[in-house]
Amino acid sequence: MKKGMLVLCLFLLTGCWDKIELEEQAFVVVVGLDKGKEGMLDVTFQIANPQVGSTDRSKADKEKAYEIVTLSAPNLSVATQMANVSVTRNLSLSHVKALIVGEELAKDNMFLHISETITKERGLRESVLFLVSKENASSFIRNNKTPFETRPHKFYDLMGQRWKETGFVPLSTYQIYIKNTQHDAGAFLSIYGTAKNRHQQVKKEEDENVAGEVKIRSGSHTQSIGSVVFKNGKAIGKLTGEETRLTLLLQQDSDVHELTTSFTDPIKTEKTIGTRIIIEKKAKIKVNTKKSSPVITATVPVKVDLVSVPSLVNYSTNIKNGDRLKSHIEKELERKTDKVVKKSQEELEVDIFEFYYAARRKFLTMKQYEAYNWMKSYPKATVIIHYEVELYQFGEQVLPTNRQRVRD
């Protein structure tokens, strides 16, 4: 009996043979990937200092919040081990919040192979934020100065949450990238960002830009707006902030609930009307696959709040004006969405709206669906978009200000 107990104790104790003390760990919060020379990969690790920004801050007043290490290696696994040449602690990828990929690498044919090797990396979660940087990923990570977040991981946590509130960027994780690439039918939309200060001509509308084009005065030059379109695992083009928003309005799995934008005043065309678009119901997608070229019909119901009406035209109680505004917003949304559809078919040649989910249900077997070849069928499809606008609220002050009374 005693011998049996001894053997049992020894068996239980063997579970601690590979333990690593917490103070021996170095937690990587951001991984950057760039195209290196001679087929190599330039890997950047942003390693957090757990004491900075914590309750133990008094002991780390003179310490940096993070350390950045860049090196060349054939893959991520080798780079993780080679980093210990200069980092004495064991690098752990279990706390990585974001995967930053340089645009040059994202456009390269080798990126699909690189992305597949990342899935084999132990400890790296598939739910990490996926971002494509306009410049090299190493440059983005080094220049990303966040005035409000001392700890680098917090910036990416909050940025990942803002997509639901603005729609300027898509929900973009490494897990979704892998899933959409394996579908071989649609596209993957990645967040597009930059941390460089660029002085460029500002476009007319606030959301008709991509990262680096928004004129903003701030202590940080980091911008995240627009998206990068991936087809078969490779970056093939970009969408502006407005195009990304319109795409998300049609996607069935999108969780964007509210967008703020502006439209030209239909009566006083020199003015614009500020609106808040509320999405309570998903778009209704119908796909007819009886012909070789599919016919796609999408109906998008939205509610519109009037945030500001500088022209002071009465759109709230004047039914005729209200109907005119409603029709104007519907036509504007349809016109803009048609442009994005045309871009997806003629320039990108890929289904960025995920219409293939509705198309797949039209086939009895997966073999029939695969034989239809949605990737080749979609560019030839007839796509009809309808918006159903409901003027919802007009603010606390329903009627516009009477200027004559103000003067009196």
TrEMBL record:
Any one GO CC term of the record: membrane
Localization per record: Membrane
Topology of this chain in the membrane: Lipid-anchor
Keyword flag Lipoprotein: yes
Keyword Cell division: no
Alphabetical list of InterPro entries matching this protein: GerAC_N, Spore_GerAC-like, Spore_GerAC-like_C, Spore_GerAC_C_sf
GO biological process: spore germination
Keywords (A to Z) from UniProt: Germination, Lipoprotein, Membrane, Palmitate, Signal
PANTHER family xref list: SPORE GERMINATION PROTEIN B3 (PTHR35789:SF1)
Location of the Spore germination protein N-terminal domain: 18-184
Family, as annotated: Belongs to the GerABKC lipoprotein family.
Predominant place of localization: membrane
Residues in Spore germination GerAC-like C-terminal domain copies: 226-395
Designated name of the protein: Protein GerKC2
Pfam families the UniProt entry points to: Spore_GerAC (PF05504), Spore_GerAC_N (PF25198)
